[in-house]
Design goal:
By secondary structure, this protein is of the alpha+beta class. The protein has one domain. The protein is built from 2 helices and 4 strands; from the N terminus they run H-E-H-E-E-E. Strands 1, 2, 3 and 4 form a 4-stranded antiparallel β-sheet that branches. A hairpin with a 2-residue loop joins strand 3 and strand 4. The protein is elongated. It starts with a helix and ends with a strand.
Amino acid sequence: MTTRERAYAKASNQHANQFTEMWVVGSPEDLAVMIHAARATGRLVYVSAPHQMGGDDTRHRRYLRLRTQ
């Protein structure tokens, strides 16, 4: 592995470690509280639009990307 390849791999790992990505599932009210808290702490980077779970399930799911530091 060349020096350039090692530097690129290290930078990629550091960038990947800066975020946590997850799907959260819950009632719209619960998700709103969670998203508000993440936004208030400055950790929220991205949140997707709500998607219904389907069928007779009233819950929603959303994708979140949060800063880890």
